[in-house]
Amino acid sequence: MKILVVGGAGFIGSHVVDLYIDNGHEVHVVDDLSTGKKGNIHPRAKFHHLDIYNDQEALTHLIQSEKFEIINHHAAQKSVPASMENPIIDAQINIMGTLNLLESAVEHGVKKFIFASSGGTLAGDISKIPTSEVDTPVLVSPYAISKYTLEKYLDFYYQHHGLNYTVLRYANVYGPRQVPDGECGVVSIFLENFMQGKPSKIYTFPHMPSGATRDYIFVKEVARVNLLVLDDGDNQVFNIGTGVETSTESVYQILQDGLKCYVPCIKEPKRKGDLERVSLNCDQAFKQLGWRYQTSLQQGLMETIYSVLERKIECK
Ligand SMILES: NC(=O)c1ccc[n+]([C@@H]2O[C@H](COP(=O)([O-])OP(=O)(O)OC[C@H]3O[C@@H](n4cnc5c(N)ncnc54)[C@H](O)[C@@H]3O)[C@@H](O)[C@H]2O)c1
């Protein structure tokens, strides 16, 4: 298949590109390199340095001339705090940028649109754990609102223009190539701090002294589901996680033991807006796609540690 991966220079998108190419697909990448890196892009992918919000004309020209069968969309403004500080920029990239892609997709015969949504942020502080796709989303940030809005637009483009879609609502994705940015990606933030011998902060709740719980899913498992939905799961929404809740402190301890690098952590009270618990019910992905995670958190974290050590950064 001929596939355009938007955001293919980023953490998750670049693993999706690798797997598509390994499976014989022809892949183009659109990315503005705002958080992604050119070095992440598979050498056999054709790269187009474009911004999905500002470069609409060039984007349309690309989609028209290359006649992609699939658009896989992983580009986003992905920071929840940034979306709260500047909802307009969030909407420009996440809503308007995606609408630019969708308009070109229907105009130029794209068959299917695969969209990276967010299970964790759509769950909000929901009482039902693990959360399933049919539970009513609790939207507590502009980032969550923009992701959910796009899910509704996808249904509109399917109903009115026949563009098939699959929505993948990811839990907390971790693995090689994740960049610590101070706000999200606790595994990469902890790893970076360990490498520098710096203590990390764990935000706690009065009744949860080991910190919030999250559902951690290894990036290669996420890439694998992106391969399966090339020809399955049309016009459906899938949670992609493990259903297992792990506290922040447990992640810290696994990394500490794996690295044999003992730096005490600092415990602080939760920040405004921190969710207590996230875990996704992923039965639907198993029923429809036969997808279920196979990499345990320990295995995935060890592979992530090795990838960091390969980059020859040493634990101080
Ligand atoms: N990492 C997670 O745990 C997680 C969880 C849920 C959902 N998601 C979603 O998965 C997707 C990928 O996330 P990631 O963690 O790989 O982030 P990432 O920042 O590594 O990847 C995003 C990519 O999009 C590119 N990009 C951003 N704005 C762009 C624009 N205007 N035009 C073109 N390219 C642009 C960036 O340069 C980057 O390469 C995002 O949509 C994110 O919201 C991620």
From TrEMBL:
InterPro entries: Epimerase_deHydtase (IPR001509), NAD(P)-bd_dom_sf (IPR036291). Residues 3-241 form the NAD-dependent epimerase/dehydratase domain. Signal peptide: none annotated. It comes from the Bacteria. Belongs to the NAD(P)-dependent epimerase/dehydratase family. This is UDP-glucose 4-epimerase. It comes from Baia soyae.
